[in-house]
Amino acid sequence: MIRKARIQDVKAIHSLLMHREEHDGLVLPRSFSQLYSHLRDFFVAVDDDGAVIGCCALNIIWENLAEIRSLVVVSKHRGKRLGRKLVEACLSEAVTLGIFKVYTLTEQTGFFAHLEFVQEEMDALNQKVFADCLNCPRFPDHCNEVAMVMVL
């Protein structure tokens, strides 16, 4: 099941984002402070027992732009379309909020292309987009991320 994150999910989300083996080091870790401040951005996937097995966030950048980020699904639950469902929940919320351009910075271009995101030059995105890049250990010389955009 996919649902909005709740306060009791913060520790599970933090664990997902901090354990590199669950996301192959492809997402930025987030502090507890960041997660509590941005909890309303997150959707979670939960199993039948209510355990959080995936997460994804929709981060509003500006009046016409939002970012899909922090997408992680526990490895043993991959292949069940949970990543797709998490992204679709974020896209639905973007439309509800009146935001019709969504981007992601990713190395998983095939996954997002399958969802109909298209590659775009990094320079085409607002520079505010790259605020998190400054905190990334791979910035600037070892970043392999690609900007992908969907216009809803």
List the helices and strands and how they pair.
Layout: E1 2-4, H1 10-18, H2 20-23, H3 32-37, E2 42-46, E3 52-62, E4 65-73, H4 82-97, E5 101-106, H5 109-114, E6 118-120, E7 146-151
Parallel strand pairs: 4-5
Antiparallel strand pairs: 1-2, 2-3, 3-4, 5-7, 6-7
GO molecular function: L-glutamate N-acetyltransferase activity
InterPro entries: Acyl_CoA_acyltransferase, GNAT_dom, NH2A_AcTrfase
Keywords: Acyltransferase, Transferase
- Tell how many strands the DSSP assignment holds: 7
Q: Taking Cα atoms only, what radius of gyration do you get, to the nearest Å?
A: 14 Å
Secondary-structure class: alpha+beta
Number of helices: 5
Shape: globular
The proportion of residues forming helix, as a percent range, comes to 25-40%
**How is the biggest beta sheet arranged?**
7 strands, mixed
Distance between the termini: 24 Å
Overall average pLDDT:
90
Q: How many domains make up the 3D coordinates?
A: 1
CATH class: Alpha Beta
User: Order of helices and strands, N to C?
Assistant: EHHHEEEHEHEE
Pfam families: Acetyltransf_1
InterPro entries: Acyl_CoA_acyltransferase (IPR016181), GNAT_dom (IPR000182), NH2A_AcTrfase (IPR010167)
Domain N-acetyltransferase: 1-152
Keywords: Acyltransferase, Transferase
